[in-house]
Amino acid sequence: MHGKTEAELPDPAEVKKVLQCYHANIGACNGCDLEVLNLINSFVLAKKQPLELMLVRNLKNADLLLVTGSVSRGTAKKIRELRESLSGSKPVIAIGTCAIDGGPWKKSYNLVGGIDKVLPVSCLIPGCPPNPEAILQGVEVALGLKKKQFTPHRYKER
Question: Cα–Cα distance between 56 and 61 in angstroms, integer?
């Protein structure tokens, strides 16, 4: 997703205030999952955040897809099916180092890598685990409410 200028950002009054999120743990250690739940249940951030996140059980009702964990060969097909059942072009957000590139297990024989190898991703949120404020900022960037503050650079091993 490319950064947007101030003129291209949507009007905050027009943005949906309660976002329904579907959270998919595809093999994470639960560190990132705890931070997602921390964000959703946080009373401290509730005063600061312009929108509320709510977890839903049905993917068809979701406004966005939050993904944690690394993609194994066995789960790649299921993840594609998950994306096909997501109605419309909803944002997919990769949360944590494992979802971005496989994390500490990226050289394992059974891993495909990050979620971007299987699905088009709107926003990558680095960290092991990322804090709730970073996750909220990533959601806002994916929805176009904020400009991207930096461009990630991927290092290639020799």
Answer: 7
Which of 72, 122, 74, 71 has its CA nearest to residue 99? 71
* pLDDT tens digits for range 89-119: 888 899 999 899 888 888 888 888 888 888 8
Burial of residue 19 (number of CB atoms within 10 Å: 0-12, 13-18, 19+): middle
* C-alpha dist (Å) from residue 59 to 16, 82, 115: 18, 8, 17
**Domains of the chain, start order:** 19-143 (3.40.50.12280)
Token duo for residue 55: 């977890």
Within 10 angstroms of residue 76's Cβ, the number of other Cβ atoms is: 18
Distance of CA 67 to the CA centre of its chain: 5
Tokens matching residue 44 = 């401290």
Quick one: three-class SS letters along 116-158? HHCCCCCEEECCCCCCHHHHHHHHHHHHCCCCCCCCCCCCCCC
Residue 99 sits at the vertex; the CA angle it makes with 96 and 104, to the nearest 5 degrees, is 80
pLDDT digits (tens, 9 = 90+) for 34-79: 888 888 876 555 556 667 788 888 888 888 889 998 898 888 888 8
